[in-house]
C-alpha cells in the first residue's frame, strides 16, 4: 500500500508551516517514502537524516502503557487495582476509587498538572518546579500535587498527562526499578529498538534534534519542558524504530497477543479528536489504525500503523507546529481514517 498523495500536495504541506523533521512510510519490509526536511540543529546547519532521534512529546504514552501491562502479565499488579495504596500519603487529592485501568484509559478524573482542556499556548511556561530537577520520576511529585479531582472515576474520558505520570510512579514502586529502565528492558529491548531513549535535553548526543519553538530562529524548548521525559512524554524516537515497534507489538514480542488485543480494544469514543482510545493508544474512529501522537513546545509527531498491510506512516517534527499540515495532508489522502483534530480544523 502507498498513500495516494501527490508530490505537489506533499510539498505544499511541508511548506505550510516549514516542516522540519523526518517523514517515512514503510510497507512491510519496504520503505516507500522518505523525506528529511530542515535541520536537527539550525545554528550549526546539521540536516535531518532518516536516523535522527526526535522528541515525540506524548507519543511514548503507549510505551508507558506497555510497561504497566508487562507488570500485569507478571501478576505484579492488576488493572482493577486501586492506586491509593501504592501512592500512600503522596498525591492525597487522587480519588480513593481510581484504578490502574482508569489511568490507562484517561477516565480517572484526577486533576491534571498539564491540563489540555484549559486555555494557553503550547509554548507557555507552565511548570511549577525548576525544570532541571525533573529528571527522575519521584521528582515530579511536587508538580503533580494540589490538583482537585475533576469528576468521579470512570465517568468520562479526559486526556490526562498527570495520569500517565502516576502510572510511571506506580511502575517504579511495585517493580523496584526506575521507569526509564523499565521502558528500556520491557519495551525497547524486546522490540529491538536501537535509537530510542529518554535523553536529557541539556546533554543531547550528536544524532538528536533540538526542539524549536517557531518556524524560524534558534530558540529551543529547553526552558519549557522537563530536562528528561517520563511517563507522559518526552522520549526521543527514530522513524526506523517506530516501524520496528509496531511490528513487534502486533507480533506479540512485547506483550502477549491477548494483551495487545485488550490494549487496542476501543474503550471510549472521542469525537472531538475524530478518534477512539484504548489503553495507551489512539485508534481510528472508523478503521483499525493504531496511533501514537504528541504535541508540545518544539515537538509535533504522529505515527500511524495499519495492521492489515503492515504499513507505518510516521511524521516526526522538531518544531511545535511544523508536522501538523503534513499529518493532516496524509490523513486526507488516507480518506480521513487517521485524521485527528488540529488547531485549524472546525
Structure description:
Residues 15-324 form the Beta-lactamase-related domain. It holds the Pfam family Beta-lactamase. With 346 residues, this protein is of the alpha+beta class. It has one domain (7-333): DD-peptidase/beta-lactamase superfamily (Beta-lactamase). The protein is built from 10 helices and 12 strands. It has helices at residues 7-16, 61-73, 84-87, 100-104, 141-144, 161-175, 179-191, 239-250, 257-263, 324-333; strands at 21-27, 30-37, 39-41, 46-47, 54-55, 236-237, 268-270, 275-277, 282-284, 290-296, 299-306, 311-317. The strands form 3 sheets. An 8-stranded antiparallel sheet has the order 2-1-12-11-10-9-8-7, with helices on both faces. A hairpin with a 5-residue loop joins strand 9 and strand 10. Helix 2 packs parallel to helix 6 (161-175). Residues 336-346 have low confidence and may be disordered.
Helix and strand layout, with pairings?
Elements (H helix, E strand, L loop, with lengths): L6 H10 L4 E7 L2 E8 L1 E3 L4 E2 L6 E2 L5 H13 L10 H4 L12 H5 L36 H4 L16 H15 L3 H13 L44 E2 L1 H12 L6 H7 L4 E3 L4 E3 L4 E3 L5 E7 L2 E8 L4 E7 L6 H10 L13
Helix pairs in contact: 1-10, 2-6, 2-7
Organism: Cellulomonas xylanilytica
Pfam families: Beta-lactamase
Protein name: Serine hydrolase
